[in-house]
Amino acid sequence: MPTIPVVCTWRSHVSPWSFLAYATLFCMFFLIYFIAFAARWQVPNKAFGSFTQIDTEDDTDLVYEKKRWEQVPPPPTKDKTQSKKGGKSHGHDRDCQPHHRVVYVKVPKTGSGTVASILDRYGWSHDLTFAVPKHENNFDPPFNKSQVYRWKSFENGFDMLTNHAGYNRYDMLAMVPNATFLTTIRDPVKQFESAFTYFGYADQLGLTNEKDPMEAFLRGAEEQEYVMKLSYGQWMSRNGQIKYLGLDRKKQEMPFYIERRIKQLSHELDLVILTDYLDESLLLLRRLLCWTMDDILYISKNVRSTSYRYNVTNKVADMIRKWNSADMRLYDYFNRTLWNKVERYGSHFQKDLKEFRRRKEKLNQQCIEEMIEDPGESKRVVELIVKKENEGKCHDWILTPRQFIKMKRHRMRHLAMEIGDYPDTT
To answer: What is the rounded distance in angstroms from the CA atom of residue 106 to the CA atom of residue 138?
Structure first.
């Protein structure tokens, strides 16, 4: 038969050793592919570095972030926040030194202005340096170091970053090496109502005549009818908190990606402050940074007038939770971790909390003459009238983040000029 020589000829060219070589190459290729695939799910390891999720509109990349950014030495200037004698400092029950390198991921509409003011006041009074935006009050999300005013002038980085900046750990550590990372989140129902009011969703979509504009929006939002029509604040219209912290919108309905992002944030953030339990959170902040109790005192700012608030019914609250399900998962997780940290604080937590609130009330009585609700149609926040006899003493306590930004930018410009950087273009 004519086919027999063909078959025999083919067999004569394929020896067992050739077959083994081909099989070995195939196995090596498969092994390399498997290792590359498995690396995408690497568990973060603090001892060697961490994998940081960077979500983009097209794909998801894992960037390996070595600890080299955290090993950049601090500026050679004298650290004015350190206690001179060492040992127990600032009334703490353990030996510690105050930390002044802080990155605060200031999530919009979470009441984050109060915390930002606490950090700004501390940094200002201790002559620290700030990474500030070049021109505006906020950084464009996500944060990029090229947005920082005079960043090339400060080779060793800055001490603090406290303005609105979408979470980008890699560039943030480049600007504030060895930083303690903080953020603030809020009950998604309250945060969504605040965003709905601030960005004027009802006005943008012509819903002001509806019986309940927020309910009307949520009904249309389910079909994406209204969301796509928003020209201002669209990015905060759904799951705005977890998006600001790095989860791409395309993944906000995928439980796997949501849970993975939350775990990464739990690994990367040193403290997540809850606005709904602000005083409790600030006590944890005090211990984390080894600050004094007076360092964390505050006077609430930018409190909205009652006329600029929507009445959220139980029905609408349930709709908000469903619409912002990823934010709910984020909030529930860090709500649990907050109380775990409170438990680890020790039995004297309630005593410290009572003392902190006593001092806070005393500060408000010393500084605030009157709080005026609805001071005018052009003003959406409660106006604080400061006691004239204490204006100088209370000045720094009532400054808002918008007022601090001008002061901080002026300081950084002056410091840059001192080291010979005169152009105002970097």
So the answer is: 10
Structural fold of domain 50-199+237-418: Rossmann fold (3.40.50)
The two structure tokens encoding residue 85? 């004698």
Q: Which residue has the tokens 């944030």?
A: 265
Residue 379's pLDDT is 61
**Residues 28-61: tens digit of each pLDDT:** 766 665 555 444 433 333 322 333 333 433 333 3
b/e 143-167 (16+ beta carbons within 10 angstroms → b)? bbbebbbbbebbeebbbbbbbbbbb
3-class SS at 104?
Answer: strand
CB atoms within 10 A of CB 20: 10
How many C-beta neighbours within 10 Å does residue 374 have?
14
Q: Which residue has the tokens 């060697």?
A: 48
For the chain, give me the number of helices (H) and strands (E)?
Answer: 15, 8
Predicted confidence (pLDDT) per residue in 264-283, tens digit: 999 999 999 999 999 999 99
CA 412 to chain centre: 23
Q: At what angle do helices 314-323 and 213-221 cross, to 10 degrees?
A: 30
The whole-angstrom separation of Cα 107 and Cα 260 is 20
CA-CA distance, 283 to 102, in Å (whole number)? 16
Residue 183 burial class via C-beta count within 10 angstroms: exposed 0-12, middle 13-18, buried 19 and up? buried
Residue 284 to residue 130: CA distance in whole angstroms = 23
**CB neighbours (10 Å) of residue 31?**
10
Q: Which residues neighbour 108 within 8 Å (Cβ) at sequence distance 6 or greater?
A: 164, 195, 236, 240, 244
Q: Which residues contact 216 (CB under 8 A, 6 or more apart)?
A: 207, 210
Give the Cα separation of 383 and 304 in Å (integer): 9
